[in-house]
Specification:
This protein has 418 residues and is of the alpha/beta class. The chain has helices at residues 30-33, 54-66, 118-135, 148-160, 194-199, 219-232, 250-254, 258-267, 274-287, 316-319, 336-344, 389-395, 397-417; strands at 5-10, 13-18, 45-49, 71-74, 90-96, 103-109, 139-143, 165-170, 174-179, 207-213, 237-241, 293-297, 324-330, 352-359, 366-372, 375-381.
Length: 418
């Protein structure tokens, strides 16, 4: 198996760089089967960097700190337009069980747009870390929407507070043990402990809303706007990028310089594999355990093939996890009929809840919708990645007030029917 990290020396500093997997996602058990080297880190500063999952950063921070690293920091690309305003973000330390030192859940929810500045993150997180140091729980579960820097910082603080086990809980990977020096469960996905079930019960009726369509119709931008609207109305949820070959990370949507953005994104491209497809489908299933609403930014197919392959064999397992589909089509290249045919061949056409015509990406953003029979139709403009998700969510608010409850009702009905 390929190495999931590289170690280099820069004077007194040790650098640990995470490397991409050919299947895009490293399985959690990699941290057990290919252990992170801690040789020579005692008393030295360590910097973590590279494309790694939150559980990878948490594992490395905890393991290196336990091995005596003097400081464990994180280096990631700077994100433009950060804010000191904490509105829409929170951090909670929740204890449960008769033995209140047994387990604790540190839940962090950082709003997606605009991202918080380092100063704001510190203001939000510092009181929780002080509380963690005072309470000293044996087991800590870290969960919620937060950056790899936050996960690493919490894991480091947990080791300093004497935690004997650290678990990360994410939409993508479920409950993963990232620090377990004595118990032998490192890298394992575990069931929800009883104390955690008390602290955070399962969502009553979780649903998955999927956004799909041909390339360059704005589906990733619309997914981000839909997720931002979900956040604004106080609905618990998450957005998953399900395009395994060509992901659309937040930094890509925030870059204005097209050539540089394309170059950076192309470096992340991977060939689709059956393992990748199965992994993404499993991540959607795991997400239902944690969130009321998951928004899935779905792949658009292979349009270099003749004829275009919108739903290639094997990819249907991802779409089958979605309860309600929003189909975007460009006004200069209608594709609804082709998508219906592709979905129909796998028995998934009935999951289409809305069809939106995407036009004039450079024009003023607007969204208008109406119900036609059992289907919602509409027009959306302004889906250009230079616009922030917050700007678009506010511009689309009137249309989303109609569309959002309809999508959830459709999804719940679809989920109830199985």
């Amino acid at each position: 198996m390929s190495e999931w990290y590289r170690v280099s020396q820069n004077g007194a500093e040790v650098r640990v760089e995470f490397t991409p997997s050919k299947d895009r996602f490293w399985p959690p058990e990699i941290i057990r089967t290919s252990a992170l080297s801690v040789a020579g880190v005692s008393g030295r500063p360590v910097v973590l960097t590279g494309p790694g999952a939150v559980w990878m950063y948490a594992h490395a921070a905890a393991t290196l700190r336990a091995a005596g690293a003097g400081h464990v920091g994180v280096q990631t690309p700077n994100r433009p337009g950060t804010s000191d305003d904490l509105t829409g973000s929170e951090s909670l330390l929740i204890l449960a069980g008769e033995d209140r030192q047994k387990g604790a859940l540190l839940l962090v929810r950082l709003r997606a747009s605009p991202p918080l500045s380092p100063t704001a993150v510190n203001r939000l997180l510092e009181p929780r870390l002080e509380e963690l140091a005072r309470l000293r729980p044996e087991e800590l579960v870290i969960a919620g929407r937060a950056s790899v820097e936050v996960y690493a910082r919490i894991a480091r603080a947990a080791v300093d507070s004497g935690a004997r086990r650290i678990v990360c809980w994410s939409a993508r990977d479920g409950l993963v043990v990232v620090y377990d020096p004595a118990g032998g469960q490192l890298g394992s996905q575990i069931a929800r402990p009883d104390w955690l079930a008390q602290a955070m019960p399962r969502p009553i009726w979780p649903v998955i809303l999927g956004v799909t369509g041909d390339p360059n119709c704005g589906k990733s931008v619309f997914s981000a706007a839909l997720d931002c609207y979900r956040e604004q109305i106080g609905c618990d949820g998450w957005k998953l990028d399900c395009d395994g070959q060509s992901p659309t990370p937040p930094w890509y949507l925030s870059l204005i310089g097209d050539e540089r953005a394309k170059e950076l994104r192309d470096q992340q491209k991977r060939c689709w594999t059956p393992v990748m497809e199965a992994t993404i489908a499993e991540q959607l299933r795991l997400g239902r355990e944690l969130f009321s609403v998951l928004i899935a930014d779905l792949p658009g197919g292979n349009h270099k093939a003749v004829p275009p392959q919108r739903l290639r064999e094997g990819r249907e397992r991802i779409f089958a996890e979605v309860d309600a589909l929003i189909l975007l089509e460009r006004d200069d290249a209608p594709s609804e009929a082709a998508w219906r045919e592709a979905l129909r061949s796998h028995g998934l056409e009935s999951r289409i809840a809305a069809v939106l015509m995407s036009g004039d990406p450079d024009g003023p953003p607007s969204l208008s919708v109406c119900k036609e029979g059992g289907l919602w139709r509409g027009e959306v403009t302004g889906l250009d990645r230079s616009r922030s998700a917050r700007e678009l969510a506010e511009a689309y608010q009137s249309g989303l007030k109609q569309l959002w409850p309809a999508l959830r009702d459709f999804a719940r009905g679809r989920s109830a029917r199985g």
